[in-house]
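Deliverable D5.2: sample structural annotation.
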Amino acid sequence: MTPTEARTALDTATSEAEQARSLVAALTERVREGDEDVTGEQLAAQRQLAEFAELRVTGAERKLTNAIDADRHARCTEAVETARRLLDADDTRPVVDAVTAIRTAVVQLVDVVSARNADIEAAGSRLELLNDELGREAGTLGERGSWPLFDQFQARGDRSHILVRDPKAGGRSATALSTIDLATAALMTVLCGDPNTMHFGERLRLPHDTVRALGEVVPGLADAWRTTPEEWAALHTTGQTRASQQGRDPRREG
């Protein structure tokens, strides 16, 4: 018997017991009012029926308790078996492979960013030294805003930045990048669409506008991680807000 069936049986037994008690009360009241048509045998019989009905209620209550216990036991057993089957079939190799792929990509990112930063540092430091040399000769070394190298050759630089102005191509520059910021930004562009990661930005400690800035600083990066119209439509409202803050809204391409 299921708990639902047992509850139905208890409701029926309870209703019948109430009716039996009402009949006993009615017959008793008739006797008290002097109704001689009610015999002792009738009243005794009705009281026996009421007592029997109460016993049926007790029996129905016990059946309900047993049915609830049996149902709970069956659900617990099924839940444990499901967990056991999951553990038996659990394979972390896909997770390990995915994490390893991320690690390999990060290693590659570290290598290419480090190489680029080293080139910028070498070129920028050389420009900075030459600027100091020209400044000493001109007697302007240390003066605020003095860049004799830029005045003569339209170039300036330091360990983290270089700028060369070309009459034809205009100003071109390169800035050293942070591997951590780039890796974190890439992670944030993926997680922004996950409704289960509402506070991931705080945990990663990288503002969404920093993601936007990286896309603007690194040529081609903004286009590479901009969402497609289909991906944008699939994002929830919060995801769209995050993606927009990151400069990845396809409606603002270019």
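Annotation notes: The chain has three domains: 3-89, 93-175, 179-252. The radius of gyration is 41 Å.
The annotation will be released with the project's public dataset once the embargo ends.
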